[in-house]
Amino acid sequence: MASPDAVITEDPYARAAQVYPRLSPEMMERVGQYGEEETVARGQVLFRRGDRRADFFIVVEGEVAILRHDDQGREEVLATHQAHQFTGELDQVSERALLVEGRSTGDGRVVRIHHDDLARLMSSEPDIGELIMRAFILRRMGFLYHGQAGVLLIGDPNDGDTQRLERFIVRNAYPLREIDPRTDPAAAGLMETFAVGAGDLPVVISPDRSVLSNPGLAQLADHLGLTERFDPEEVWDLVVVGAGPAGLAAATYAASEGLSTAVIETLAPGGQAGTSSKIENYLGFPTGISGQALAGRALVQAQKFGARMAVSRAATALDCGVHPFRIRLEDDQSVQARAVVVATGARYRKLDVPDYDRFEGHGVHYAATAMEAKLCSGLDVVVVGGGNSAGQAAMYLSRHVGHVHMIVRGPGLAATMSDYLVQRILRSPRITLYPHSEVTQMEGERLLSGVAWTDRRTGEITRIPAQALFVMIGAQPNTDWLEDCLALDEKGFVITGLRPSRASDEEPEGRPGASPYETERPGIYAVGDVRSGSVKRVAAGVGEGSVVVQAIHAYLASLGRD
Predict the structure, then answer these.
(1) Which segments cross the bilayer (predicted)?
(2) CB atoms closer than 10 angstroms to residue 353
(3) Are 4 and 137 within 8 A, CB to CB?
């Protein structure tokens, strides 16, 4: 579950009254209708780290301690809930594995609310639900801020595999403490304790003292309890493939309107937008919001309404010749759905430059977040691209690096970038724009150390020392998994708003009243960046994802479900 805030600059625990609120006597009476009061004994464990679908507890009398174990196996009390306070954090509204243990410190009484009834409580008692949800969010933010109840990552920050693991953990809002074996004095002792050699790095060490050496993301997700396994025989009303803004909007609106909803995501919530350091023209956020923060809030909403999510599980095929449709995943799982929303978005294209593949993970980046800014602190960097994502990256990086060199093939930025970003870039003394240019050379041994570009008008070559190249050019749709199931345009984007002719299946033709997001296959829809002709903006994707649910209701009704 993504963090509500990508970069947490203040200690959330300082807001103690919101992190650990007390329910009023009147609220206690109301919540009692959703659970059962029971006695607990000293030392009784109410839930353990790793549990899924744990019950929710409100203390009536006595105390409940929230504990974690550090990397040495030592027990630490993170908080103690007293009368009228409650247990839980964000994993309480999802199917993810819990990070902590809850244990009674003495004899007492609690109200136990079963996992499935918590959603009913939060929906039926909105004032209490708001108080609970705010506490859950702040508690998770506290874990992230202090690196509590999570994992250790030991590895060279410049190593591509270390970056891959860190990016996955951070984007999925899992608490993390990073150890650089070159500079951190604790590294040698930890490596000796866990019998880790230099050749094993990077390693992930979890509180149960298990060690994963350079794991794959699916293996890591399973080990951390980040993902879910779905019953292959269960049929969902809707499966959304892709958890970018469009997919999360569809999941939120569908789940809130009573549709059983599952979300399949390859990496982490947010999609391409989740890598944006700040989005300033998204309605309702006048000071801007990071893509990860926006995705985090959206995911919390979707899960609050009951949407279920599997991360690190790429869809590999869509069997649309049967109904219910069947989506096949890379780990041989399959998921059945009455309706499908394709929201797999698009990815940045790669540069056609010698040695480019060699430097992926060793200096080439496709996101500009706090993680990348930390790696490039004080150094010159190169940003390639003329769209809003490239502009946001350049502005964000300019506050952390030595200088930003921005490369665009066209004559400038006005035709492809929002004016507010264009003006900021042109006024910034820490950004230099190079129009009519393209990267032609990359230098370095193991790590990128230099970049050269050529002015296509004059042939002049500029070469600078640079350890980071940020590539944000064009969009390549993530539609390989659709194969021959759906009609794609010449660039591979999904064609919508069309239906095959009754007389011929050769060419799609318009159908009066058809949803603009419906594909040629009834019951399968496409929204967001993956859709042919869509406006490649976050707000547009959110709009499409929310609007498509109306068409899904109509389709399900035609099946006789409603």
Answers:
(1) none
(2) 20
(3) yes
Nearest to 178 by CA among 193, 196, 165, 192: 165
Are both 511 and 400 inside the same structural domain?
no
Q: Reduce the DSSP state of residue 49 to 3 states and report it.
A: coil
Cβ contact 75:148 at 8 Å: no
Residues 74 and 158 in one domain: no
Is the pLDDT reported for residue 6 higher than 50?
A: no
Contact of 318 with 327, CB cutoff 8 Å: yes
Q: How far apart are CA 28 and CA 311, in angstroms?
A: 36
pLDDT in tens, 262-319: 999 999 999 888 888 888 888 999 988 988 889 999 999 999 999 999 888 899 999 9
Residue 5 maps to a domain: no
Q: Which residue has the tokens 């174990």?
A: 69
Which residue range forms the structural domain that includes residue 433? 356-471
Sign, CA dihedral 381-243-256-37, equals negative
Question: Looking up tokens 């058809």, which residue turns up?
Answer: 514
Output the six-digit token pair for 419.
């004016």
Q: What are the two backbone dihedrals, phi and then psi, of residue 435, each rounded to the nearest 5 degrees?
A: -80, 165
Q: What residue type is 547 in one-letter code?
A: V
> What is the CATH number for 86?
2.60.120.10
SS3 for 343-399, per residue? CCCEECCCCCCCCHHHHECCCEECCCCHHHHHHCCCCEEEEECCCHHHHHHHHHHHC
The reply to whether 194 and 276 lie within a common domain is no
Angstrom distance (rounded) from CA 264 to CA 54: 23
Instruction: Enter the DSSP assignment of 341.
Output: E
Residues 288 and 428 in one domain: no
Helix (H, G, I), strand (E, B) or coil at 14: helix
Given the structure tokens 């390639």, which residue do they identify? 384
Q: What residue has token string 């591979």?
A: 492
Are both 434 and 509 inside the same structural domain? no
Q: Which two tokens stand for residue 145?
A: 């801020």
pLDDT tens digit string along 117-174?
Answer: 998 999 899 999 999 999 999 999 999 999 999 999 999 998 999 999 999 999 999 9
| CATH number for the domain that contains residue 187 | 3.40.30.10
Q: Are residues 491 and 516 in the same domain?
A: yes
Please state the φ and ψ torsions of residue 407, each to the nearest 5 degrees.
-110, 125
The tally of domains found in the chain comes to 4
In this structure, is the dihedral angle defined by the CA atoms of residues 558, 306, 137 and 309, taken in order, positive or negative?
negative
